[in-house]
């Protein structure tokens, strides 16, 4: 039987940091069954916090907190000391070091990371841009984009575009199909802004079969035929070569990994 | 003069957890100027790690690591002990507690969080869904969606849809305009799946003016007129009432905050 560990994530804001950490760390224990359903965002009330901690103790949970208020942090600390509850305070160690280094005291105000500032507007604009210029919908986008993603069908162009847009990069993407001529505009894009995605044919076949399956279609179509996939990839590689594109192999990479590698590439040029 | 603190984020994978933490914690020190440009993803080589640590020490930086390998963690620990470098290891404390609680040793393999599993496919499908059914493009989407977002122009429907899609929720959104009749399909959507966004008129005005500005248009159009905005909001509230929609005030909320509140609402019904 799998060992089961409930994880309590308590935050006075959204609690995204805890969730990221817990997902990353939990992946290191594939035989442990973590229960990630105990999320307590926007926890600001002391009594509410105490009651969550009591439940966590009963459940023998691991507690991860992102609390910016000293009061709340102290409650967790006192409770843990009294009861032996195991917890990790992600925020306080960082804040203590900065406080000590700079002499500046932290605000202790929850949710201040999110403001209606230029960064927010740029992010919204980039997301709207990526939606508008997804899938080669409008060739005008290539000339306005910070980045143009090329790839054959099912190389994660759309999710990658959205992920990068969330980081305020304006992305246009274009599916490559051997039978469809390239839009002229693409040739006017500086080559450092073009990223061509490639993927191992066998992995691509698996992804396309899953796609067909989810659409309720037969899995033995030309779309998932390994020779057709190789033909498409050959064509794509020719295009990347012609355009001088930066080529990225997305095989077995997550959206986050691919996006990080693309950002590293862009940093070298922008 | 603002105090300046360089932050080194070192990860053997993407390093998203560090970035989330650092952004959240840095917001607590508005008078400190954090330099977040020192990101070192995919750090797996011992010599490379040592050289990054030496640079961090020279820069008098705060170091945040997310390393799953004991070897690399030990190198950071030894270095810090020898030199006094201040660092936070986000991963190891969590992994130690789980190890101790379950007796299961962590894999220590970087990047295992990201797999080509059903979760990945569902996420890609949800993102593609959100792009396809953004902005009321196709009324069919309302009936297939897990969630329908309604709101007047500039209430963050698109970024919210994409954020939720990234969490595998299929979202369709529809802009509400008093002069445009509602699509019939919306009336067939169960009310628990409908979320209506509202916003304070003055804040909306500011957002719309910024939008006009970014489009290079005059800021005094009807679009940013406070009376027009109030008229649109009145109409929207009438629609929410008629449909029995869950109403969410997005004023001064970040995408993350609004999305978290929507997920809490959905959790109560799904």
UniProtKB/TrEMBL annotation, chains A, B:
Coiled coil spans: none
Entry keyword set: Kinase, Nucleotide-binding, Serine/threonine-protein kinase, Transferase
Listed EC numbers: 2.7.11.32, 2.7.4.27
Record carries keyword rRNA-binding: no
One Pfam family of this chain: Kinase-PPPase
Catalytic activity: N(tele)-phospho-L-histidyl/O-phospho-L-threonyl-[pyruvate, phosphate dikinase] + phosphate + H(+) = N(tele)-phospho-L-histidyl/L-threonyl-[pyruvate, phosphate dikinase] + diphosphate; N(tele)-phospho-L-histidyl/L-threonyl-[pyruvate, phosphate dikinase] + ADP = N(tele)-phospho-L-histidyl/O-phospho-L-threonyl-[pyruvate, phosphate dikinase] + AMP + H(+)
Entry GO MF terms: kinase activity
Residues binding ADP, per UniProt: 151-158
HAMAP family: PDRP (MF_00921)
General function of this protein: Bifunctional serine/threonine kinase and phosphorylase involved in the regulation of the pyruvate, phosphate dikinase (PPDK) by catalyzing its phosphorylation/dephosphorylation.
Family note: Belongs to the pyruvate, phosphate/water dikinase regulatory protein family. PDRP subfamily.
This protein's name: Putative pyruvate, phosphate dikinase regulatory protein
Lineage: Bacteria, Bacillati, Bacillota, Bacilli, Lactobacillales
